[in-house]
From TrEMBL:
Belongs to the LeuD family. LeuD type 1 subfamily. Its EC number is 4.2.1.33. This is 3-isopropylmalate dehydratase. It comes from Alkalispirochaeta sphaeroplastigenens. Residues 12-121 form the Aconitase A/isopropylmalate dehydratase small subunit swivel domain. Keywords: Amino-acid biosynthesis, Branched-chain amino acid biosynthesis, Isomerase, Leucine biosynthesis, Lyase. GO terms for biological process: L-leucine biosynthetic process. Pfam families: Aconitase_C. Heterodimer of LeuC and LeuD.
């Protein structure tokens, strides 16, 4: 029997602050970079048009700042991941090293796509996010901890409650966030059921 992927209960790391409401999936990963067979390499194109000009010269953007290099938690504002439902957006963030996204709110499909990749997307109240962003901008080396079972985000002596779709949160804690792994873990039982179905059993092996 194949094993279900590991539960995700705690994520701790440095954070990067990406300010702005309604940052859509086209800003996260421009459409011209989606013409790929696999998602490999998409990380380098995360926020590309916000990070580089037409000649490829770097612009002012948190993902280009040395102080945020190696950050694993992205801090965002309202309606992050809106627009197209492209799964390439969370794929690009994950492949850029992001393991969790904390925002004030998310597009529902974006949050679902994040969950399917094992990247929790959790929402903080506006005042809490403003404080957390300020703390990280003042000291980017400050660690941030996401505690899914407790429903809290912690940084130093500050604690912030978060909200998250109950089904997503339960899936991370139980380790069932990857539906493909859950399905494959039951391969023997699926085979047994298939063999009992007349319309399948009649087909030659």
């Amino acid at each position: 029997m194949n094993e279900i992927k590991q539960a995700i209960k705690h994520i701790t790391g440095r954070a990067v602050v990406v300010r702005g409401n309604d940052i859509d999936t086209d800003q996260i990963i421009p459409a011209r970079f989606m013409k790929v067979v696999t998602f490999d390499g998409l990380g380098q194109y995360a926020f590309y048009d916000l990070r580089y000009d037409e000649e490829g010269n770097p612009k002012a953007h948190p993902f280009n700042e040395e102080r945020y290099q190696g950050a694993e938690i992205l801090l965002a504002n309202k309606n992050f991941g809106c627009g197209s439902s492209r799964e390439h957006a969370p794929q690009a963030l994950m492949r850029a090293g992001i393991r969790a996204v904390l925002g004030e709110s998310f597009a529902e499909i974006f949050a679902g796509n994040c969950t399917a990749l094992g990247v929790p997307a959790v929402a903080l109240e506006q005042d809490a996010m403003a404080e957390l962003m300020g703390l990280i901008e003042a000291d980017p080396s400050r660690p941030v901890e996401l505690d899914l079972p407790a429903g809290e985000v912690r940084s130093g002596d500050r604690t912030f409650p978060f909200s998250m779709h109950p089904a997503y949160r339960s899936a991370f804690i139980a380790g069932s966030w990857d539906s493909t792994s859950v399905l494959l873990s039951r391969a023997e039982e699926i085979g047994e059921t298939a063999r009992r179905l007349p319309y399948l059993a009649e087909f030659p092996a």
